[in-house]
Amino acid sequence: ASQSCSALPCPILAAWGKMLSRFASRAVFRAAAVPKALCQPSQVRCFAHPVNTHLMRDNEELSPTSEKPMFKNEFIMKSPKEHQEDVEKAVRAPIVHDTAELIPAHSGDPHKYCGIGEWRYNHYEMIREPTFPRKPDVSKGELAAGANFYRTDVWHDPKEPAITSVAKFSPENFRPVGWAQNAPNPTSTVAEGVLDFRANRLPIGHADRRPFVYFVTMAAGAVGAGLIRGVAGKLILTLWPAKDVFAAGVVEVDLRPIREGQNFVVKWRSKPVFVRKRTPEMIESCKKDDVIAPSMREPATDAERCKKPEWLICIGVCTHLGCIPQPDAGNYGGYFCPCHGSHYDHCGRIRQGPAPKNLEVP
User: Fold this and answer.
1) Contact 70, 125 (CB under 8 A)
2) How far apart are CA 67 and CA 70, in angstroms?
3) What is the 8-class DSSP label of residue 129?
4) To the nearest 10°, the Cα dihedral for 177, 179, 180, 183?
5) Residues lower than pLDDT 70 in the chain
6) Phi, psi (5° rounding) for residue 187?
7) Is residue 340 annotated as part of the catalytic site, yes or no?
8) Partners of 277 in the beta sheet?
9) How far apart are CA 77 and CA 68, in angstroms?
10) What angle do CA 170, 174, 177 make, to 5 degrees?
11) In this predicted structure, what is the pLDDT of residue 104?
12) Among 78, 218, 313, 328, which residue is least crowded by beta carbons within 10 Å?
């Protein structure tokens, strides 16, 4: 067995030795019930070792941030506006075309020492932060965020209100050292050499862009005005009387067959209308009573009620309670309402009875 083992290459012997050492350390630990600390020197670091397999266990590579930093703890604490001014004033590294001339970066990030997430930038490993971390020294550029911030009094400043002090430690106020010089600031996601017409586009606010803005504004205004006009028109048409109502409001009467002294009745807006061709005696009687018109219940002369002396046109509804008066009746020979005894003369003026007004002239 020793001859076969001696013929094996040295790397294989080393692997077998590590495996035997691991088995021996476990056997000794279980048999003698020796504390784990006594077994640590005999353990050899290798793949799937019990101490190094779980990331939540402390070890020299994945220790909490406050005990051994996984990233370079060098940050600048300024307002976002000041950081932007630093970017504009920063002197960036020269542009190179050979990958061999690029700035070397460890694990893909110059601020990262070692650990998982090679191409991801994190301030600290949040799941491995201790319950009571060490208070960071902001004067030396150490980051105060997460547990290092709210589990310590690093934010406290007795010279100002607490809310003002806490606001200064917003994550947007921290940038790593060298960020202004090395942070990428691409102007487009399109690679160089691909036509995307960036150079042909006018900047926002350019004078040559105003006509298009004016055109869009006018077009939108015209469309909006049309919509408002349509809505207003529909609303007005819904409130407008129907055509049959308009038709009922206009009635034409042929006056030729009406005889002298006759009271002709027509229907207008669902009301009776008296059309009378008065005799000369009726006209003379009404004009004679014009001298006492001011003393009547509703003063009016014959000429005011009859534009043409021979024609009287009035609504045949009593102004008392809406009854229909009888023609050629009453004490004055004009109209008489038998319901309550209202008397009207030949031009429709109330002369006696409870009616408050004259017969209405349309």
Assistant:
1) yes
2) 10
3) -
4) 170
5) 1-72, 103-130, 248-249
6) -95, -15
7) yes
8) 311
9) 22
10) 175
11) 62
12) 218
Task: Please give the structure tokens belonging to residue 275.
Answer: 């059309």
pLDDT of 227 reads 95
Q: Residue 125: what pLDDT?
A: 53
Q: What DSSP letter does each residue of 157-220 carry, written as one string?
A: -TTS-HHHHHHHT-GGGEEETTHHHHS---S-SSPTTS---TTTSPPTT-GGGHHHHHHHHHHH
Nearest of 81, 88, 103, 92 to residue 181 by alpha carbon? 92
Rg of the chain taking only CA atoms, in angstroms: 54
Contacts of 165 (CB under 8 A, 6+ apart): 155, 156, 157
Q: Note whether 298 and 350 are within 8 A (CB).
A: yes
Residue type, 188: S
3-state secondary structure 34-67: CCHHHHHHHCCCCCCCCCCCCCCCCCCCCCCCCC
pLDDT at 257: 86
Report how far apart, in Å, the C-alpha atoms of 329 and of each of 254, 310, 343 are.
Answer: 25, 19, 8
Which position among 49, 106, 156, 340 bears the catalytic label?
340
- What is the CA 139 to chain-centroid distance, rounded? 44
